[in-house]
């Protein structure tokens, strides 16, 4: 089982290049960034973490810009999003951005995606929250066409363009990791994903989670998809729980780092690195 980290990279915390070098030096396998373009001041959408939304949500750096900087100071680790709100981007522009980051990294980029929870944020991007999941999947399909076809075109419910030329192409078609834990998430993993990225699987949830992993593997085999890896976002950093993840069939865990200054983040990395042994 691989071990990586994720962070809300902010303007008041550790800088991305320092974090990327430190993550690779300590032997981790990947580094993933969250995404929010903004947070509306007046918000009705509930946050599942509590009553008060932490300030890191509106101080996050653009993940693709930050990952480009990280790509040029690292050589080995996977770099990706956990998760990108792709429905808030136009797929033609985002496809070029992702392809550029992938080329800078030498083919190490992974696209973790989710439809998001903040309805007011979506609305500011002109997205109807009622159709967010359909729009996300259509954006993914449109970007796949741009990455893989010399003359890409797409005609859907939300995205429509006649044949286009768009380069650069990525070194490899970036793996899409579908985030979420809802009852239909495995359908989306099988239809549009290359892996599953569930969040914060607690100690008392591992048994039920293992059954879902087994279900994913059975369905992937039946569909001729082969092995679809599972990455746990916000993994519990305890050996007993990590052993349970591994027994459940998890391929990679991502530990969440604090949105803090360099000294605190590096201390946390040192502590988490001990769990790899």
What does this structure look like?
The chain has helices at residues 16-25, 63-71, 91-105, 119-124, 132-148, 185-192, 206-222, 239-248, 262-273; strands at residues 2-7, 30-33, 78-84, 109-113, 152-155, 160-164, 176-179, 195-197, 231-233, 252-256. It has 277 residues and is an alpha/beta fold. The strands form 2 sheets. Strands 8-7-4-3-2-1-10-9 form an 8-stranded parallel β-sheet. The protein has a two-stranded antiparallel sheet with strand order 5-6. The longest helix has 17 residues, at 132-148. The model has no long low-confidence stretch (mean pLDDT 97).
Number of strands: 10
From N to C, what is the helix and strand string?
Answer: EHEHEHEHHEEEHEHEHEH
- Largest sheet composition: 8 strands, parallel
Q: Nearest-angstrom radius of gyration?
A: 18 Å
Give the distance, in angstroms, between the N- and C-terminal Cα atoms: 11 Å
Helix content, binned percent: 25-40%
Q: Within the largest sheet, what's the order of strands?
A: 8-7-4-3-2-1-10-9
Strand-residue fraction?
A: 15-25%
What form results from the Cα inertia axes? globular
């Amino acid at each position: 089982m691989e071990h990586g980290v994720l962070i809300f990279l902010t303007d008041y915390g550790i800088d991305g290049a320092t974090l990327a070098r430190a993550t690779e030096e300590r032997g981790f396998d990947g580094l993933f960034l969250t995404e929010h373009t903004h947070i509306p001041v007046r918000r009705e959408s509930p946050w599942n973490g509590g009553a008060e939304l932490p300030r890191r949500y509106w101080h996050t750096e653009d993940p693709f810009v930050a990952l480009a900087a990280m790509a040029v100071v690292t050589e080995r680790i996977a770099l990706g999003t956990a998760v990108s709100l792709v429905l808030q981007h136009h797929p033609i522009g985002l496809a070029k951005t992702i392809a550029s980051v992938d080329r800078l990294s030498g083919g190490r980029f992974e696209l973790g995606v989710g439809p998001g929870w903040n309805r007011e944020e979506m609305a500011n991007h002109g997205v109807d929250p009622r159709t967010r999941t359909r729009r996300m999947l259509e954006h993914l399909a449109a970007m796949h066409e741009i990455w893989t076809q010399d003359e890409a075109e797409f005609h859907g419910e939300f995205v429509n363009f006649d044949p286009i030329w768009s380069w650069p192409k990525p070194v490899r078609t970036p793996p899409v990791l579908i985030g979420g834990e809802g009852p239909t998430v495995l359908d989306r993993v099988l239809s549009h994903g290359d892996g599953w990225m569930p969040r914060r699987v607690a100690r008392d949830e591992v048994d039920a989670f293992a059954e879902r992993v087994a279900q994913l593997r059975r369905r992937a085999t039946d569909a001729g998809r082969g092995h679809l890896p599972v990455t746990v976002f916000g993994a519990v950093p305890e050996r007993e729980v990590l052993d349970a993840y591994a027994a459940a069939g998890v391929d990679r865990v991502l530990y969440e780092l604090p949105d803090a200054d360099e000294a605190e983040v590096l201390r946390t990395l040192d502590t988490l690195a001990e769990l790899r042994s």
